[in-house]
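Annotators were shown the component list below and the corresponding predicted structure, then asked to write short factual statements about the assembly.
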Amino acid sequence: MFKIFINILFIKDKMVDKEEKIEDEKKSIIKSNNFEERFSELEKISARARSFYLKEDENDRRIQKSNRDAVCGS
Amino acid sequence: MKTIEEFKKAIETQFVVLDTNVLIKAFENTTCFKGFFELLKDCDCDIVDFDLINFEFTRNDFKPEIIDLKEDFLKKINAFKLQQNGGILKEALEIAKVYSHQGIQKGQISLVDCCLGALLKQYGEKLFLATSNHSDFPLCLFDREYILPIDAGNEVISIAFYRFNNEKWEELKKALSKVKTKEKN
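Structure shown to annotators:
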């Protein structure tokens, strides 16, 4: 009888451990998904900034060229 | 300097403030910084907001498109706003005096970096600074805990994690107070 009782307690403990483990795993999966999501959002912002800077550089070059042409033309 | 394992233990569940140079590089090329952000995530370490860094990060921009992008980046990157105790400027001035006494070239370390030093002092063990400007955080006052190289294609960025060392601070202050006493005599 005592042995059965101990076995039941042991199985219950194991189940609780397993449940906690599953919960921890779930949490870490949620966390890592959030990280990937957040990181990809940061990457998108960065890509937009780079394309903005590229356009700015092109504009600057165009302005410099037209200024040069104006000076040479005169 | 610590090994990666020692460093991970030290930074676990703590806070990190990114210097302007790190923020700018991360903004311009986020993909290269994946390892850096992963390290902070693995250690459950939160990036914190510091108004003066945000000021430096955005001060040269006046076009709304880029201002919006930078503000969005800051919002997404900073998880925490630190409660700042008053007196940052007063402590920054004390740090500047210590630098001067240590023979660090006058004015070499900017006001913002002195304020960052004061912030690190206020939060002690809990707060790390990630920077690639190593000369602005002299080892006479800070501990360089770890260096993380970032391969950014045409350059390799060495990001070091610094922490304020209170023992060093007490020693430096003691040395400075001796000068003051001598002057009085």
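Statements collected:
1. DSSP finds one helix and no strands in chain A.
2. Chain A has a mean pLDDT of 73.
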